[in-house]
Amino acid sequence: MYSRHLIIGQGGTRAIVTGMGATLALKAAGLKGWSSIGGISGGSIPAILMADNTNPLMALEKMLALDFSQLFLPTSKGVLDPLASFAASLEGERTPAHKFVARMLRKGMMHTDRLGELIESQVKVWPENFWTMAMSENSHVMFTSSGVFEYGFDGSYTVLSTEPAPIALAIRATCAVPGLLEAVEYRGRYLFDGALSPFGGTPVAWVRKHFLADEGMVVSCVSSGKDSRKNNFLINLSRRLLCHKANRVAIDTSGVADICITPNVPELHALRFKMTEGQKQLGLLAGFNATVLELAAHHGMFQEGLNDLTCASDFGQLLHLVKQWL
Q1: CA–CA separation, 242 vs 135, rounded Å?
Q2: Of the N and C termini of the chain, which has fewer Cβ atoms inside 10 Å?
Q3: CA of 239: how far to CAs of 46, 107, 137, 214, 322, in Å?
Q4: Which residues contact 210 (CB under 8 A, 6 or more apart)?
Q5: SS3 per residue for 257-295
Q6: CA nearest neighbour of 125 among 172, 161, 166
Q7: How far apart are CA 85 and CA 193, in angstroms?
Q8: Alpha carbons 189 and 151: distance in angstroms, whole number
Q9: C-beta of residue 14 within 8 angstroms of C-beta of residue 269
Q10: Largest interatomic CA distance in the chain
Q11: pLDDT at position 255
Q12: Residue 314, SS3?
């Protein structure tokens, strides 16, 4: 049976705005009937809004008015607190270095409570086709509408819950950048950014494996910018420090998306929380135009006809195009 899957990859606040631009173009093109819509890290936010069928123009208006920096506030405890509590609990015993590092990185400099509150205010019920993923030290933890599932690096599989987790918890977990945004605890596991997966920050191979997507179409969206090389280095370092057994996971690295949307915005940094309205508009334009170009290039791959979109030269034209088709 034909299926269609969308993944919006990691990239912090840049992934939020470019992903929003991409979803605007996908909706304006008339694409519906997604078998799954997944998002990792910052990409989980536009993904869940699309899966929830949130009014795109209302979501756009709120996003432009939102001060991202107010979603990530300093934790109540200082960054040295994990070191003190860890040392106090050792009682002279030696502990593997990776556990020491993991405990240090659980308590980030900022918490994401307000991010969770914002998402829960917009999305009341877990969307049926939405999924996201976070990482523990020993496994992938996948959040879906049918429950929460753990895939251990050793090949084990555990059903953690047959009910969906709280939406806020799942989004906060997949966004928990080690050392920066505090880890989220779930069922005795500390969960970190989904981008730490050995499948990568846009896990196409994961989707092909777990959704039988070889039988359908996979569309991916992942942004890049001037800081992409540095971010990739930090992700790889965090993966080594926190998920040190992840190399046990067998991955088919040949798996790529059928359609790859790759907006590039040199002006935007992934972890820039203070973003002006003009910078957000740049990201939205980049995501929208990159999607329009890819849809035009792969028009014949879609069974239904697509609305005839054109690239937008500025944000005003983007709004005009979106309103024309929505």
Answers
A1: 9
A2: N
A3: 24, 17, 9, 27, 39
A4: 142
A5: CCEEECCECCCCCCCCCCCCHHHHHHHHHHHHHHHHHHH
A6: 166
A7: 23
A8: 13
A9: yes
A10: 68
A11: 67
A12: coil
Say which residue the tokens 């950014």 belong to.
193
DSSP for 104-160, please give it. HHHS-SEE-HHHHHHHHHH--S--TTEEEEEE-SSEEEEEETTEEEEEETTS-EEEE
Q: What is the pLDDT of residue 8?
A: 98
pTM: 0.90
* Those residues with Cβ within 8 angstroms of residue 248's Cβ, 6 or more apart along the chain or in another chain: 153, 154, 155
CA distance 74 to 81: 13
Task: Report pLDDT for 107.
Answer: 81
> Residue type at 121?
S
Residues 57/326, Cβ–Cβ less than 8 Å: yes
Length of the chain measured in residues: 326
Query: CA-to-CA distance for 47 and 125, rounded, in angstroms?
Result: 14
Copy the structure tokens of residue 276.
């002006």
Please name which of 106, 117, 14 lies closest in space to residue 70, comparing C-alpha atoms. 117
Which one-letter DSSP state was computed for residue 224?
B
- Are 47 and 37 spatial neighbours (Cβ–Cβ below 8 Å)? yes
The encoded tokens of residue 83 equal 């070191």
Q: Which residues of the chain have pLDDT under 50?
A: 1, 78-97
For residue 15, count CB atoms less than 10 angstroms from its CB and return exposed for 0-12, middle for 13-18, buried for 19 or more.
Answer: buried
**Cβ neighbours for 297, distance < 8 A, ≥ 6 positions apart:** none
Strands 36-39 and 4-8: parallel
Asked if 218 and 261 count as a contact pair (C-beta separation under 8 A), the reply is no
- The structure tokens 């309205």 sit at 277
